[in-house]
């Protein structure tokens, strides 16, 4: 499945180094199980979104993913893509950016023709440049945020609520970031999504924050003794305080690093997809073999 990682460092921008693909892992598995794209999104000192992403279609692209990326921001959003829809191209690679917000998604939404019709009704169909369900989900969220006069919480609830009522859904796990906020949703319980509210403390002998998974790794000496909040597909540190989000849970993290939580859906999607409902490519994208 796609890997999601979001981090909020508070109101003081911090430096962090990202590796989006471990070299050892990428060489240890067969090519048809390789990720299809990697990307990371941040915001500059003026609050403008910056996206650094690339599809993985050749060995030179894997070199891009394995290179260390030294970034500075309040919020960070990283994604490793296993494609279920759309070609292995730049426009289909996460994160996506609209209205100076960044978005990444893990899961599958079907019924894209109906979704395109809804986007046409709301005037945001031109925002879709690629073929993915994820970009369409983000376009709908963007439309609903605009309709709610910039209220991100209301926009997410309205967009995901419409999808849950009208379209076949396997998973809608997502992270959305702005220059000073992080939003995340786990829905339904198909895939895991964790949050770590890490208070100020040293995280190891090298006195650096280290968060590590089978795909994404980040390292930041500046954040060793600072309060940070991390949201990720899997637990990435040895801390005992990782919490699995509940199905239907929306969390928001502001500059004060206070985590607010709300259950926005207490029932599964009306047209819930199971693994056996997916075609071979889609099923493989959601449950690729685990790497060492």
Automatic annotation (TrEMBL):
What the entry lists under InterPro entries is as follows: EgtC-like (IPR026869), GATase_2_dom (IPR017932), Ntn_hydrolases_N (IPR029055)
Q: Which GO terms describe its molecular function?
A: transferase activity
Tell me the lineage of the source organism: Bacteria, Bacillati, Actinomycetota, Actinomycetes, Micrococcales
Query: What domain of life?
Result: Bacteria
Question: Mind telling me what this protein is named?
Answer: Class II glutamine amidotransferase
Task: Using the record's annotation, list all stretches that form the Glutamine amidotransferase type-2 domain.
Answer: 2-256
**Pfam families tied to this protein:** GATase_4
Q: Which organism is it from?
A: Glutamicibacter creatinolyticus
Enumerate the PANTHER family for this protein. GLUTAMINE AMIDOTRANSFERASE, GLUTAMINE AMIDOTRANSFERASE YAFJ-RELATED
Keyword list, A-Z: Glutamine amidotransferase, Transferase
Q: Which SUPFAM superfamilies match?
A: N-terminal nucleophile aminohydrolases (Ntn hydrolases) (SSF56235)
